[in-house]
Amino acid sequence: MANYTIRxxxxxxxxxxxxxxxxxxxxxxxxxxRRFVVAVNDGGQVIACGQLKPHGAxxxxxxxxxxxxxxxxxxxxxxxxxxxxRESPRPLYLMCISHNGPMYEKFGFRPMDYKQMPRYxxxxxxxxxxxxxxxxxxxxxxxxxxx
Length: 147
Prior knowledge:
- By secondary structure, the protein is of the alpha+beta class.
- The protein folds into two domains: 1-89, Gcn5-related N-acetyltransferase (GNAT) (Aminopeptidase, 3-Layer(aba) Sandwich); 91-147, no CATH class.
- It contains four helices and seven strands.
- The protein has a four-stranded antiparallel beta sheet, sandwiched between helices.
- A hairpin with a 4-residue loop joins β2 (36-41) and β3.
- The chain is globular.
């Protein structure tokens, strides 16, 4: 089991955060290191990360949750999420691919109906649906909310 520390990100780790986000293939926009919590191994490598990403004045999203492949299955992402949730305001939103929904339900997030979503998430979900017509993955984009 790897030893790691969960803590707020440092500016010097900005490139490692971006590299990790690209490695795991999630949304690379809005990556401001000041909003991130990271898991760092004993060698100083960022092995997992996550952020609370604002969308306007009253929408906050749990986002950019990623773990290096060789560290998956060890509860590190869970520790990052728990740290982010510890003092985050509610409601809190997130977007994920449908097969990841059950993982976030363990934290209390619930899927939202389209009509209940803030407009920002409605637009993203429509874009995702159009893109999936081309990609044909059959996956849905879930928008979830934690009260």
